[in-house]
Please model this.
Amino acid sequence: MIPEYSKPFTYAVSWKSSSQHLGDHRGTERGLGFEYRSNVPLVDYPDPRRLDLRQTLRDPYEQIQVRLYNQDNTTPVYAVCDLSGSMQYKGQQRKLDKAREIAASVALSAFNMGDVFSFIAYDSEVLEDYTLPLSHHLHQAMEVIDALKEHSHRRVGGEGVLEVPQFLSQSRSLVIWISDFHMPLPLLEQALNAMSRHQIVPVVLWDAKEYRQLPKFGFGTMIDPESGENRTVFFRQALREKFLAAFEARREALKEVFLRFDCPPLFMEAGYSADIMSAYFEQYASL
Model:
């Protein structure tokens, strides 16, 4: 069953797929497609439907020429989901529930494009109970993704992202990485280095209540994103401004790291929108 919250979006990849299976992306294999490749004699590629009369008349050896095209192929698509403790944060919506919506939409979008899809979840390690190999089995993917609504581990980190590259294809793939990225920057850089052969789309899940809607004056409870420990803080305007400045500095630091690896981040603070995902790919598909 396909959940109502899965909203498909349109996407494209910037490379030619090496797959031999028919799909909607530019490929390196010759076959049925729209990207012109070359002309060859009919004896080498006996397909009279591709007859090129103009080149045949120009051929000094008087051989019948046919046009070759690159076949449109499939590409592997992954949704990589952070299940560390900070993803349990709930402001307008629990971060993990928003991640579940995005992952389901990635699965449905890949299915609509005829691509193969895999879901990988991690916290301090890759969680194989929430991980699926590449396949066209949409309903199986939806069942695993929907099961995240019951996941509630709080005191756990996200070091398992370093194991994720072991679960990715050897062929270049589209990897949509869903997280709040409340991780040390050296860990982030190490993970991006390990996945550098792939096209990474970082979807950054923040919530306005984390830093924009803090109390202006009075006591408030802060929760450590990874340990889950509570801490009572007396807020005043100066402290509130420090929180805002810290998050803005973090935003710029994340942008700098991601852009260094040619993967512009998509910050998603409000509710999930498939249109925002489509607009992202329209803007950055050629990178």
Remarks:
- The longest helix spans residues 237-260.
- The helical segments are 53-58, 95-113, 138-146, 185-194, 208-211, 237-260, 274-284.
- The first strand starts at residue 22 and ends at 41.
